[in-house]
Every structure is written in structure tokens, then in C-alpha cells.
Specification:
Blueprint lengths: L10 H13 L7 E2 L1 H8 L3 H13 L3 E3 L6 E3 L1 H12 L2 H17 L2 E8 L2 E8 L14 E3 L4 H7 L4 H8 L14 H14 L2 E4 L6 E9 L5 E10 H4 L1 H22 L4 H8 L1
Antiparallel strand pairs: 1-3, 2-3, 4-5, 4-9, 5-6, 7-8, 8-9
Helix pairs in contact: 1-3, 2-3, 5-10
């Protein structure tokens, strides 16, 4: 007989401990041994073994008997799909982003902001920007990406500084590491309607992004095209790609209930 979770002694603590085990799996360390989980969580060996066994039985962890390693199980994929399908932005942007990637051969991403990070909702590879992994579910810095700048484009300068701070982490020599430089870049985004990023997060890559708005005219997401510098070729194609992402962002925004009249009314 299964007890109600609310009446089980220590039920909340057990849930927190189980979630801490799942949180120990990262992109850098997608597989873990029980001994590693013990060290990382500070929980006892018997507690970790018991919780890992329960998570495996429920499908949240998978075990490789040969190596002894655990990895995230398929049950989490089912839950993540459920969460994505509940997102109006995901539902309205998925086909638009897929068509964009197929037509122009560039990588296409859709992301929303979660606190001081961006969160990828959609990712499609283009023939000129192939990847052997998905970006969906990953996070990223706001200040060093075109998507992030587009997401911040309707934020007040004080809000941006409060959110990210005055000094920003650098990833390459081209990363904007001062809030003053980021605020200037955001002014450009507002002026032309799209954001750019050239080797600010990773060498050899660039992107162009535009904000997506909902029925309240608020920026709720952004869409981008990205790829190697040779494929993006911003020196020749920046205006073309900027217009392209604006048009597709507008298409998604309209599906979310946005229109330019509501934007004008909101600013009165």
C-alpha cells in the first residue's frame, strides 16, 4: 500500500534528496557512479543507493550494468516533452523555426528568458550549420548571444544592470564584459529590430536574432539564425538576415496575439 506523499514522514526531504541526485548529472558529466553521487550530494552511501534504485525503477535513471554508470532515463524525456508542449511559444514557433532552418540551411533557435539566463525551446540544424546534439533545454548567457540581446531589448537599462551586474563574464575577446557596452548594443537592437552576435560566445560562429512578443506586446522569446562565420557572412548578409528573422519573429508574435496597434496602445 502506497502512502500519500503528504503524510509520509520525511517525504519532502526524500524528494529533495532524489532531485539533488538528478541535478548532479550535467552536460560535462552525463554519467555518474554511485560513489560520485555520494561525494557530490553529501548523502550517505545507503541513502544514495536506495534513491538511485527507486529512480531507476521509475525510469528517471538508467543503469549500465557493464560500466556501473548511471545516466538520465527516458522518463525525463517524456516529462520534458510534456512541459514543452504546454508552452504557447513552443507550439507557435516550432514549425516556423523548422521551415526557416530547412529553407536557408542555417541553424535556427527559439529561446525564452529564465531569470538571468536564456533557455532554448526549439533548435533545428541547417545543412550549413550541422550539430550532433540538440540545444533544447540548455541555457546560455544573455549578454553574449544574439538571442539574449533580443530578449533584453525591451528592458530598462536599470533592470538590465540589476539583473546582470556591471561586469559580465567573458567567453572570447569579443564578449561584451561591461554593462555600458551591452546597453549600447541593446539600443542598436531597439533601433533596427534585430540583434547580432559575432564570436562573442564561441570562436568561428555568429547569429542574428529578433524578439518575439505576445498579446501584451511584451518580449517573451526570441528567434535566431546561426552558423559558422562563412555561412552567416554578416559583412554581406546582415541586413538580409535581419529582415528574415524579423519577419519570422513577427509571424510567431502574431500567432501569439501580438499586433502593432496593441504595442502603440501600450506605450501611450
Amino acid at each position: 500500500m502506497v502512502r500519500a506523499a503528504g503524510k509520509e514522514p520525511g517525504g519532502t526531504q526524500s524528494i529533495e534528496r532524489a532531485l539533488s541526485l538528478l541535478d548532479a548529472f550535467t552536460e560535462e558529466h552525463p554519467e555518474r557512479r554511485v560513489s560520485e553521487l555520494v561525494q557530490l550530494t553529501g548523502l550517505g552511501q545507503s541513502t544514495v543507493s536506495r534513491l538511485v534504485g527507486a529512480l531507476e525503477a521509475l525510469g528517471f535513471l538508467a543503469h549500465d550494468a557493464r560500466s556501473g554508470l548511471y545516466r538520465i532515463g527516458r522518463r525525463t524525456i517524456s516529462l520534458s516533452s510534456l512541459a514543452l508542449n504546454q508552452s504557447a511559444v513552443f507550439r507557435q514557433s516550432r514549425q516556423v523555426a523548422q521551415n526557416l532552418a530547412a529553407e536557408f540551411g542555417l541553424g535556427t533557435n527559439v529561446a525564452e528568458r529564465v531569470d538571468d539566463r536564456l533557455f532554448y525551446l526549439c533548435h533545428f540544424e541547417g545543412r550549413q550549420a550541422p550539430r550532433n546534439f540538440t540545444m533544447v533545454g540548455r541555457g546560455g548567457p544573455l549578454h553574449a548571444t544574439g538571442l539574449g540581446k533580443a530578449l533584453l531589448s525591451d528592458s530598462d537599462p536599470d533592470e538590465v544592470v540589476e539583473l546582470l551586474g556591471k561586469t559580465l563574464p567573458g567567453f572570447t575577446p569579443k564578449t561584451l564584459t561591461r554593462s555600458a557596452d551591452l546597453l549600447k548594443a541593446l539600443e542598436e537592437v531597439r533601433s533596427r529590430g534585430y540583434a547580432t552576435e559575432i564570436e562573442e560566445l564561441a570562436f568561428g560562429r555568429a547569429c542574428v536574432a529578433a524578439p518575439i512578443r505576445d498579446q501584451t506586446s511584451r518580449v517573451v522569446a526570441a528567434i535566431s539564425v546561426s552558423g559558422p562565420l562563412s555561412a552567416i557572412d554578416l559583412g554581406r548578409r546582415q541586413d538580409e538576415l535581419g529582415t528574415l528573422v524579423i519577419e519570422h519573429a513577427d509571424q510567431i508574435s502574431t500567432a501569439l496575439g501580438y499586433n502593432s496597434v496593441s504595442l502603440g496602445a501600450a506605450r501611450v
